[in-house]
Amino acid sequence: MPIKFDFNGLFDFNAGKNGVTERDIKKYKKDARAAYSHLAGILKNRESRVNLALEWFNLPFQAPEYIKKIQILGGKVAGKYENVLSLGIGGSYLGLKAAQDALLPPYYNDFAKARGKRPRIYFEGNNLDPETLSVLLKNLDPKKTFVICISKSGETTETKAAFELVLNWLKKGAGKKYGRQVFAITDPRSGTLRKIVDLENKKDPLSFRNLPLLEGVGGRFSEFNMGLLHLALTGVKIEQVLAGAAAMAKRCMNPETNRNPALMYALLHRILHKEKGFMLAILMPFSEQLKSTADWYIQLLAESTGKKYEREIVKEGSGAEKWSNGKKIINSGRTPVSARGTNDLHSIQQNNIEGENNKVLTFIKVNKFKHDLVLPDTKDFLAKRKYSTLLAIAQEGTEWALTREGRPSCTLTLPEINGYSWGELIFFFEMATAYEGELLKINAFNQPGVESYKNYMFYKLKKPGMKPEIAAEIEGHPVQKKTKYILT
Ligand code: PA5
User: Fold this and answer.
1) Which of 12, 392, 428, 429 has its CA 20 to 30 A from that of 284?
2) Number of DSSP helices (H) and strands (E) in the chain, helices first
3) Alpha helices in 175-219 (DSSP H)
4) Do the first three CATH levels of 4-52+240-440 and 55-238 match, i.e. the same topology?
5) Atom of ligand 1 nearest to the CA of 158
6) What's the gap between Cα 488 and its chain centre?
7) Cα separation of 230 and 224, whole Å?
């Protein structure tokens, strides 16, 4: 059963004056068609896909022999080590974490039975907070730990700093051949990480083994590229995940808007944002296991659609496209928030119902769980009820309560959580984000806004090669600190 999309709650007949009308749909029909044709055109042209970082569209269709190779490699490593330490941030972390929580049993790291002889997986290099890595390095046994460093650019400070510390720790604790416990996933040609692995790999081919990343795939769209080894290590059947993604790719390339869930989702949210002012997007899975998938989506939507400039399209002689910043400042993008049912019904839900009416909720519902719980005969309304029934009614109730207050929401239903449906879900959100980028006429595949804090850090840390104009900008715009507004 494929994922079911129910958009009824976004329309005026449920959300009242705040909902989308048939007139709105007619008004935006041309925009939806243009979004589809432009994206479809780009996806057909390899040079455009690589130029614009849209090569991720082909990830569901990777060669089965390549996938088999990774699956075998993952199995071998899993059989040898008790722990895996995965270093990476943003797109080099969030997809892996989402997969881990969705597809592995809850409490995977805590119980050997749940892991089934697979290694514990720890994620680091995704923060500069010194606490977590310190505790981990004090408690893990370096001889029993395999390290994966993931960085597309090979330059990210958080990942780089953690990698250096972890390498030192391995050097001290795992003996001379510590490099054989290190694996890197990075750009095939450029970056500091690439230089390090090439150098070490030349000295000893079993040391600092590595997988090159595909050209033209941006970090946040790369789970089916840089996340593959992690899936293999944990025993997830990669071909099932990719089969789900491939099926969704087909659905999301349907030219008819009302048969194309990603285009429909993007269009309805665009209308709600532009015409009715709904600028907050809350993704609320009614599943503990999908909370990290909602966190992954935060990065996907925020980095892709939060843009200062409208894009300018440049056609090359070959017909391929390149994009640059246009002159028009638009400051686009809805603000994503992740929440989870039923946990956050006792938290953000009060604001969702009675606070400012500026948010659209997307629920993710799961029809069938791997386990269920039946309550004992409590002699009241809960007697002999199933947990899954309570959860489903809570989700229905949340939808009803929002509708009652004229607040838009929609529901995605997964028959169950497995590799196939998770692959579908991830690819749906990637396609919906690409369509939203088209409707906004922006470059949804870069993230220039992320650079400024990095530049500030490089300036303060005196990183060689700092451009004088960036240094001048930092020096020319200090943050004002008036003592009367600092309370001590
Ligand atoms: O989407 C992106 O490209 C970014 O969020 C990156 O994933 C993130 O900045 C990490 O970059 P890298 O993989 O180069 O270390």
Assistant:
1) 12
2) 19, 12
3) 192-203
4) yes
5) 15
6) 40
7) 10
Q: In angstroms, what is the span from residue 96 Cα to ligand 1's centroid? A: 13
Backbone angles phi, psi at 366, to 5 degrees: -115, 125
Sorted by sequence, the CB contacts under 8 Å of residue 152 that are 6+ apart come out as 91, 92, 186, 187, 191, 213, 217, 218, 219, 222, 226
Task: Give 424-438 as a DSSP string.
Answer: HHHHHHHHHHHHHHH
Q: Which atom of ligand 1 is nearest to the CA of 91?
A: 7
- Domain locations in the chain as residue ranges: 4-52+240-440, 55-238, 452-485
- Given ligand 1 and candidates 196, 307, 429, 447, which is best to mutate, with the most ligand atoms within 8 Å of its CB? 447
CATH of domain 55-238: 3.40.50.10490
The reply to whether 4 belongs to the active site is no
DSSP state of 386: B
Over residues 46-101, the pLDDT tens digits come to 999 999 999 999 999 999 999 999 999 999 999 999 999 999 999 999 999 999 99
- pTM of the predicted model, to two decimals? 0.97
Produce one character per residue of 276-295: b if its CB has 16 or more CB atoms within 10 Å, e if not: bebebbbbbbbbebbbbbbb
Find the residues whose C-beta lies inside 6 A of ligand 1.
89-92, 151-153, 156, 159, 218-220, 303, 447
Domain boundaries 4-52+240-440, CATH class: alpha beta
CA 134 to ligand 1 center in whole angstroms? 24
Cβ atoms of 95 and 296 closer than 8 Å = yes
- State the pLDDT confidence band at 242, using cuts at 50, 70 and 90: very high
Q: Are 184 and 148 in contact (CB under 8 A)?
A: yes
- Find out whether 127 and 209 touch, Cβ atoms under 8 Å: no
